[in-house]
Design a protein that fits this description.
114 residues, mainly alpha, 2 domains, two-stranded antiparallel ribbon, 3 helices, 62% helix, elongated, binds zinc ion
Length: 114
């Protein structure tokens, strides 16, 4: 009986060590996954940032101004008209229906800033 208890203790101990080792391994794995996710987000953000300065985006904006008139599609204000993404599903290759023209005021409302 006493021997059995000892054996149990011993095996418990070694099982714990394995578990701890596994935990360590999974923690490391999780961390690097988070890092990848963060980097991907960073890449998207910087790509989007440069895209907003690209000729392509400038042309998309011009086309929208031409086809819809350079005014807010919500309140019809002609001041500080900006382009807002209704959907990011075609980001970097937007269709006109993915975008809406908004004045600064309505745009900030849309983003919950005001
Ligand atoms: Zn507006
Ligand atoms: Zn927006």
């Amino acid at each position: 009986m006493l021997v059995l208890t000892f054996t149990n203790l011993e095996s418990n101990k070694s099982r714990m060590t394995t578990k701890q080792l596994l935990n360590k391994y999974y923690k490391k794995k999780k961390k690097s996954k988070q890092k990848v996710k963060r980097n991907r987000l960073k890449t998207f953000k910087s790509r989007y940032f440069y895209y907003l300065k690209s000729k392509k985006w400038a042309q998309i904006k011009l086309d929208l101004y031409e086809s819809r008139g350079k005014q807010c599609e919500v309140c019809e204000s002609k001041r500080n008209v900006q382009v807002h993404h209704l959907s990011y599903k075609n980001v970097f290759n937007e269709e006109p229906e993915d975008l809406i023209l908004l004045c600064k005021n309505c745009h900030e409302k849309e983003h919950g800033i005001k």
